Amino acid sequence: MSNLRLLRETSLLDVPSVLRNLADAMERGEHDQVNGCVVVWDADTLEVSYAGTGEAAPNAHLLLHAGAAKMMARVIEGKG
After folding, report:
1. pLDDT tens sequence across 4-27
2. Which residue range(s) make up the domain with 56?
3. Residues 37, 38, 42, CA angle at the centre, nearest 5°?
4. Half-sphere exposure of 63 (CA within 13 A, CB side)
5. Which is nearest to 50 in space by CA: 59, 42, 41?
6. What does the DSSP assignment read for the chain?
7. In a domain, 2, yes or no
8. Max CA pair span of the chain
């Protein structure tokens, strides 16, 4: 099951704090088993990083598209 997780623990403008809070929550077991994660770095250049099981490129591609589909479904349902 996929869920859209809203990040509200800290200012979303503080990227390092958001990432630390996500890691802390995973280590505390607050999320179901995490098998992979994609981070899109919006810096001087746009980069995509994948961490997790399996090959990076296909898994990152799948997670990004699954996330986009989940967000679109929420918009269509009027919950976005």
Report:
1. 555 666 676 888 888 898 899 889
2. 15-76
3. 145
4. 20
5. 59
6. ---PPP--SS-TT-HHHHHHHHHHHHHTT-SSPP-EEEEEEESSSEEEEEEESS-HHHHHHHHHHHHHHHHHHHHHTT--
7. no
8. 35
